[in-house]
């Protein structure tokens, strides 16, 4: 079974960013080799509308078979609102919370992001998962692309 990896907007932009491109491009190579499936959302589509053309069009370079699409639902918005109301992050991070809620509700294997302030942050991950468990959801695994690279044995 292929790993289902939810990607947020930072991953698409990270493909072209000097600081993040090496690990991000390695993740995309795994996608090309059909080792993984990217789970993408309509929220990602909305966030990419104002991105530079190369970022906005990146995912079109890959077969649709490499992606699973999920949609923002009432349930995911409610879960995201709970993360905010319980002060895991502030209201300005609502979109980040919606990504986490979508990944949680759709039971992905891992959410991958370069957002270390609001998403890939141990204290926040513990808080997201505490809420998830209390509300009857599974825990969500959250990592950076560096954690998903297959390193060769030396």
Overall description:
The chain has about 150 residues and is an alpha/beta fold. The chain has a single domain (about 5-150), classed as 5'-nuclease (Rossmann fold), CATH 3.40.50.1010. It has seven helices and five strands. It has helices at about 10-15, 20-30, 40-50, 55, 75-85, 95-105, 120-135, and strands at about 5, 35-40, 65-70, 110, 140-145. It has a five-stranded parallel sheet with strand order 3-2-1-4-5, sandwiched between helices. The longest helix is centred in the C-terminal third of the chain and has 13 residues, at about 120-135. The two termini are about 25 Å apart.
Features:
5-stranded parallel β-sheet; 5 strands; 7 helices; Rossmann fold
Could you write a compact summary of the structure shown?
With 154 residues, the protein is of the alpha/beta class. Helices cover 44% and strands 13% of the residues. The chain has a single domain (3-148), classed as 5'-nuclease (Rossmann fold).
- In the CATH hierarchy, the third-tier topology is known as Rossmann fold
Biggest sheet strand order reads 3-2-1-4-5
Number of distinct helices: 7
Tally of individual domains? 1
Give average pLDDT, whole number: 94
User: How many beta strands in the DSSP annotation?
Assistant: 5
Radius of gyration (CA) equals 15 Å
- Principal-axes geometry comes out as globular
Terminal Cα span: 27 Å
What's the helical proportion of residues? 40-55%
Q: SSE string, helix = H, strand = E? A: EHHEHHEHHEHE
Query: What composes the largest sheet?
Result: 5 strands, parallel
CATH class: Alpha Beta
| CATH architecture descriptor | 3-Layer(aba) Sandwich
Superfamily at the CATH H level? 5'-nuclease
Kindly estimate the percentage of residues that lie in beta strands according to DSSP.
5-15%
What structural category arises from helix and sheet content? alpha/beta
Unreliable stretches covering 5 or more consecutive residues: none
């Amino acid at each position: 079974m292929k790993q289902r990896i939810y990607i947020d907007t930072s991953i698409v932009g990270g493909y072209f960013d000097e600081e993040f491109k090496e690990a991000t491009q390695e993740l995309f190579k795994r996608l090309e080799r059909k080792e993984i499936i990217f789970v993408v959302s309509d929220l990602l589509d909305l966030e990419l509308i104002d991105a530079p053309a190369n970022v906005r069009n990146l995912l079109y370079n890959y077969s649709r078979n490499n992606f699973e699409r999920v949609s923002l639902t009432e349930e995911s918005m409610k879960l995201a609102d709970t993360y905010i109301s319980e002060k895991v992050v502030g209201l300005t991070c609502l979109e980040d919370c919606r990504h986490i809620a979508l990944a949680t509700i759709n039971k992905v294997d891992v959410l991958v992001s370069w957002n270390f302030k609001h998403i890939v942050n141990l204290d926040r991950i513990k808080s997201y998962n505490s809420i998830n468990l209390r509300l009857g959801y599974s825990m969500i695994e959250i990592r950076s692309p560096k954690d998903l690279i297959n390193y060769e044995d030396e």
